[in-house]
Amino acid sequence: MAEWLAKSELPTSIVTDNGNEYTVDTDFRAWIRFQEIIEDKNILDNFKALFCARVVGLDINVFEYEPTDAVLNAMLAFFLCFREPKAPQKQTSDIAYRYKEDWGLICAAFRQQYGINLLTADMHWFYYKSLFDALTSDTMFVKIQQYRTADIAKLPKYERKEALRLKNYWKINDTKVVSQKTPQEIEKELLQKIKTGK
Fold first, then answer.
1. Which of 48, 57, 111, 175 has the fewest CB atoms nearer than 10 Å to its CB?
2. Where are the domains of the chain?
3. How far apart are CA 83 and CA 145, in angstroms?
4. Which residue in 32, 34, 31, 37 sits closest to 11, CA to CA?
5. Is the four-CA dihedral 148, 154, 160, 162 of positive or negative sign?
6. For residue 53, what are the CA distances in angstroms to 6, 21, 109, 112?
7. What does the pLDDT look like over 29-83, one tens digit per residue?
8. Which pTM value belongs to this model?
9. How far, in Å, CA of 136 to CA of 37, rounded?
């Protein structure tokens, strides 16, 4: 059975390992910013917890009562919608998407597939994430993700030239990114980092 069937049933707080509950901002925009902070290699790790807490509306005084790792774990659990991250279908060194570069495409995809204007939408993060994960290849955003992560070597020879052209055209270049992963790999890696504190 679904964990939530109505908006009123959607969670509005995080719970730490100690069982303490803290209210957070559930708007999808806050959790997009959370993801951007976690992935940003220019932000020192010891500052990320504070920045993340601020963008999701968490009272920063929580760090006076809770270990930093416990708070990060709780925020990450909410970010992952209380689910274990999915195993990636394939290993890749290519970036599938990044909000900074692709926000316009994501807005267009939601408008096309769901008739939703993300610029004005009032939407819980869990609902947004469900819709985001269900976007289809009918949208340009998903097509571009496929171009970026295409395994050229496995394509028929007659398709490789065009596939490589599209891959290079839409490639996200970021020399500051040390490890470039699929969305599923990113989620799994983030969870591991929080658990190990590394």
1. 175
2. 13-86+187-196, 99-182
3. 23
4. 31
5. negative
6. 26, 14, 29, 33
7. 999 999 999 989 888 888 899 999 999 999 989 999 899 999 999 999 999 999 8
8. 0.81
9. 27
